[in-house]
Amino acid sequence: MYVLSVFLLSSMALIIHVILSSITVIRRKQPVKSLRPGVVYIAILVLLFEIRFPSYVDGMRESISTGVSRAELQVFATDVQTRIFNWNTADDSQRNVKFFREKFPRLLALSPIPPRFRITTDYVDVFYGSALTKHWGFIVGDISQFPMGHIPEGMYHQVYDGVWVYHDTW
Fold first, then answer.
1. Is the separation of the CB atoms in 57 and 77 below 8 Å?
2. Which keywords does this chain's UniProt record carry (predicted)?
3. By percentage, how much of the chain surpasses pLDDT 90?
4. Which helix (H) or strand (E) holds 159?
């Protein structure tokens, strides 16, 4: 959290520096060389947004493939789809998550964040993260029925037949 604050403050300071340097360069009181830090900073930001870095997907794919078998995932999906759970309140959701974490400890220990579930007849989607930001998860079942519109190209990978991991943006 502190790293983000320091980054934002330093970004604001650099942006102010670039604006002030631009004004002084336009008035010809300072050489154009003073704009170089701002140009370099903007180039670095553009590169950070354009370059694909390893993401949660790669770590989740490795965690699932080394820690959980396909059979365990299928048992999990069948169990979730056949039971009727009440997800209406936060207490009910916490109780359900606790039940599944006790029953499938290796599967739902991928993140300390409580998982959320999207259960349909075609697939079971277990995802972590905030509803307002990016989140990551895995799908067990038919991925052709999963709404893929918000998942960028290359941000989902197949782990086993019928098991996928993804990292999406909303």
1. no
2. Membrane, Transmembrane, Transmembrane helix
3. 0
4. strand 156-160
Q: Which residues, listed in sequence order, are joined to residue 157 by a DSSP beta bridge?
A: 165
Encoded amino acid at 41, one letter = Y
Q: What is the pTM of this model?
A: 0.58
Whether the per-residue pLDDT at 48 is higher than 70: the answer is no
Joined together, the tokens standing for residue 114 give 């409580």
Query: Could you tell me the pLDDT band of residue 1, with boundaries at 50, 70 and 90?
Result: very low
With b for 16 or more beta-carbon neighbours within 10 A and e for fewer, the 98-116 pattern comes to eebeeebeebbebbeeebb
All structural domains of the chain with their residue ranges: 2-50, 56-168
Environment class of 13 (CB within 10 Å of its CB; exposed 0-12, middle 13-18, buried 19+):
exposed
